[in-house]
Amino acid sequence: MKVRGFGRIAAVALAVSAPLGIGLVTAPGASAAEATTVYYDSSGAPDYTAQIDQGAANWNAAVDDVKLVEGDGNATVVFHETDSGGSYTNTDGHGNGDIYLDTSQVAEGFDPTRIAAHELGHNLGLPDDYSGPCSELMSGHGPGTSCTNAKPSAAEASRVESLWANGFVAASAVRVSAAY
Hints:
Layout: H1 3-20, E1 36-44, H2 49-62, E2 66-70, E3 77-82, E4 88-91, E5 97-102, H3 103-108, H4 112-123, H5 154-163, E6 176-179
Parallel strand pairs: 1-2, 1-3, 3-5
Antiparallel strand pairs: 4-5, 4-6
């Protein structure tokens, strides 16, 4: 095949695939699509702001399509501190929700960074999987107090990427309430 013919084929492929939303590999240095920013507010859980920030940083290191950023007054994910009932979140699973961090769970020995990252995972669209191993963040309290892993697994990160590929366009409108 002549080089000129290849160029025409590539141009046709780009013209056909772009309107269909089919991604093509971009040249080095080309800018990728911007990540969707989800703002969180940790002021309602003042004893755990460092752990919340670390949980968000762990997600930000694992995914590209969505970034968690400490609030700018427009937070859609709001943390609250509570002293009973277990840690949990009420969320739409797509960047909007209230997270409740239970101080009694921390007193029992559960890692607050893992709890914060786990609950953020719900706000990014992931369900609980209590039977999973410690290496899965969404296994929550299932592995016990010795589990301090606060980083999502590759599979969890991949799932979040697929859920956020279209930004705030929700994967589903089902409201989620999940506990650590």
